[in-house]
Design goal:
The chain is 42% helix and 16% strand. The chain is built from 16 helices and 11 strands.
Amino acid sequence: TTITMLSRQVATAGARVGAARGFSVLTAAEEFPGLPSTSPGEKKGSVASVTTLPSGLTVVTENASLTSTVSLTFPNAGSSSEGSSEAGAAIASRYLSFKSGSGLSSALIVRNIEDVGATPFSSAGRRGATVGFTAARENAAFIAPLLATECSFEKWDVKEAQQLAAAEAADATSNAQVSLSDQIYAAAFGAQSAMGRSYYTAGASRAAIVAFYERNYILNGAVLAATGIADHEAFLRMVEDEFPSSAPGAAASEGGAAYMGGEARVAAPSTGYAHVALAFEGPTSAPLMNVMKHCLNNGSAMPFAAPGIIGVYGGSEPSGASSTVDALSNAVGSAPSADIVAQAKAAAKTEALTALDSGSQSLADAMTASVLDSSGFSAKALAESYDAITADEVAKAHAAMLKSKVSLAAVGDITDVPYQATIASRFG
């Protein structure tokens, strides 16, 4: 009986601790069975696995995250892949995420996600688009197939996507930072090029949206990243069973544009402020690009880097615009010393590794980026990629950067901002 069991525990404990311990005869574990250990075992490191399926879909998982984020990234579903008659299709297609498809209504898809307490998300930009969710580990595989529903383009869904895209584009036009980003791409690649055109474009027709979506939202070339997955092979079997199984079509090709180096200016005197950015062509290696970015982190110049370009930006009152350009030019024109390179390597490596511990979604993003950059993922390899960068490599990359033509973007009250030709003369 329960009383007999407790009596035996008391007798055992009493014999062990003796009469001197009169205040208690039971240990915490004996008094509260099932209490978690106060000396847990050593935490196991994350193990990542990568597999490319016959469909062309690459699946990358890790097993240590306490929650699961499952994201499906279509690397060629950004605005740089829009055709000449498809401007605005990328931003509208983002809003077709979790809409009717594969025989399921939008309401049923959303209800299944909400029923397990998952949080859905979607994003898009110039390069690629992502749809995903964060949920409890035990529910990840159950709702993951909802990410790959084949959109049926119901009239009401497309109409809503067009309206949401128009609202986002309108908000973007009033944001100086977004406008500056658009202008630096226009300056670097040409305003009418695939990379130079703005992602924030409204007015895509239904036909354009459908054509863009069907061409770019395909599994061939896509990356499915999942955190908190204990069994990679079981997750793969689920993907093979539940995701579309039709023969893979040709992988979508990203619309690209050669770096040109030019100038883009948007005058808005009423803002009473001048926003300025300078950019150059950057290295193709993501770790080297990140180290270079931190080398440019100098004083009032704020560095930025994106695939294909690297640079600095700043702002000031209109009367100080010329001085701001001087500061930006000095920040990019000075070759980094060995000490600066060492500091930049440490900062870039820390930034990359911190992203792995900044939450389930951040980890999934890092896994996807690594697969797209190097076709694999491991925290050890990521750290080693930064350790391997030498000061000589950075010096050569910096020299190559300056040999590319400088790009200038200016937004706001920019009367006193020098023109690109004047700035370019500073770099030889």
